[in-house]
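Thanks for the sequence, V.! I ran Elongation factor G right away. Repeating your input here for the record:
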Amino acid sequence: MSSPAQGGRAAQPSSSTQSSSTPQAADEAAIHRIRTLALVGPAASGKTTLSEALLQASGTIGAAGNVERGSTVSDWDVIERRMQHSLQTSVMNLLHGDVRVHLLDTPGNADFLGQSLPALEAVETAAVLVNATAGVEPMARQMMAWAGERGLDRLVIVNRIDAPGVKPADLLAEIQAAFGRECLPLNLPANGGREVVDCWFRPEAEPGHEADFSSVAAAHRALVEQVVEVDAAFVERYLEEGDVDARELHAPLEQALREGHLIPVVFVSAKTGAGVAQLLDVIAQLLPDPTEGNLPDFLRGEGESATLMHAAVDPAAHVLAHVFKVAIDPYVGKLGILRIHQGSITPNSLLVVGDARKPFKVGHLFMLQGKDHVEVQRAGPGDIVAVAKVDEIAFDAVLHDAPEDDHIHLKPLSFPHPVHGLALKPRRHGDEQRLAEVLAKLAAEDPCLRIEQVASTHETVVYGLGELHLRVLLERLRETYRVEVDTAPPRIAYRETLTRTAQAQFRHKKQTGGAGQFGEVHLQVDPLPRGAGFEFVDLVKGGAIPGVYIPAVEKGVRLAMEAGVISGHPVVDVRVTVLDGKHHSVDSKEIAFVTAAKKAFVAAMREAGPAVLEPVVDVEIHAPEALIGDITGDLASRRGEVRGTDTLGAGLACVRARAPQSELSGYQLRLNALTRGAGRYTLTYAHHDPVPPAVQAELMKGWQLRDDD
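Predicted structure:
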């Protein structure tokens, strides 16, 4: 397979492809000319601007777009252009010589990790951007760690090297302190950051192009020594000869990158173009092709019985492709964006989604250039392509064409748990179904978006990773799908219970001139252990309440429990025993016993030491280790109980605590203030506990039990 063409912008097949003796040889040669690269890191580090610079330097576009003007290839969405920030991963590609580079530009805000993390599944190399004016920010640390966990080759790109006040020597020291001494510069800034000088292929600087700090010779020596360490033969040769030609070190270099023994650092200014051409050379000459990186971990089977396997980077094998992104356009429909790991796909290929029984036929195969879809006729291992209008495709699905691959899936990513909630209600009556359908589409695009229909509060609640995440969702609802909603904080799922046994009775008697209503119920309420729920016991003897009316008694009790007695919240953990009652042969009806049971239950509850319960959650907070004291102090002020702390490495720590859910409403904003945006947390429901007396009094204040009669 030759590299798929990109419309009129693609170069003609290289001579190596044309001279290959067989189609299979041509396909294998093309694989070695593919690079896949995700630009990751903090917001405002210049990922989108660098994407534009790379596209322009390669000749893919005539002039670089501008984030402020909203003219970039990657940030094409209306909301992205207005906010001047990437909100979703954008896929692009370029040619540098005969090498095709699949380039992914990812969001830098932590609220959009549901977009940036899956990009790591589609590439061999994660390029972590560091803003030279800001240093190593928390998002750079997190993405570096995640990329390391996935076994990706890693590259550090230092951007804005020409900014006033930048001290590149101090910046490199900070990078090495954060990520390890294996971070070594492939090039160095020179002439005040207006250019860079190569340190890999050229062991000595050219006159007039000396580095701004250190020296080319010293950087070259450090690189070679680091690389040869992975190969004993080269170590011996290096010790004997004093140097090894860098062009002979390709294999050990790739091994050092795979093993994380070397994390190259390159310097650029995306705005001025300094170092951009050299970065293209680094990508093409030094970064891994699909056969040289660590192969992603696939699992065959489900659960504990699943076995580890790896795809064969073979264009002639059966297909294995992973859907790392789903986009749903209200006009175009669903677009599945996938990385091919094994085999080849063409229009008319028959593929199966996961363990589905029915295959779908690929109608059109696209490469993406931002919002533009460029049709291609063939794609193989290493290529990133898209298929449209296949309803069965979902995020994280594996596409294949062999029955034995039905139960293969990629080792799952560990996503942050969405905990920032917002209750939504359609502003226009009748839009409830429309809202549900649109939210389902948005959740299909974003693995960090969770939609919940809360039966206990009758609310539709959407959970995201932060305030910005949900604000963007509301804008998409309004601008893209024309759905207007009212919002409110989610209601806390308080409950009521009782603390002691009590009895009560109530006679319901109503005469309206014709047939009357009569029913009398005597019952007892007893507390049950927390979480036991509800028990209903019938001890009526002698037909005091005919058996036909016992279900009506239970219905009345359940209605009273659902409505609440002292604060309007459902009653839980109670046993209700019907002891006795009376009926009338003419006037007794089901409604009479429903009403009598409701009133008897309310009366008994009021005598049984009623208490309000609140949900208590386990909270796990990841934040810089130096700020743990501030976080634990803040939790204590929120009625929280710290249950332990753990050191995670790389300057991070984890706090495990338990706290009332009501005290953590909007907690991400507070955590952002404590950690300068570096903290994240997850919540897991633990149990319900009684609220403090002052809180119970506040909840009871103003509550009046509704009389349905």
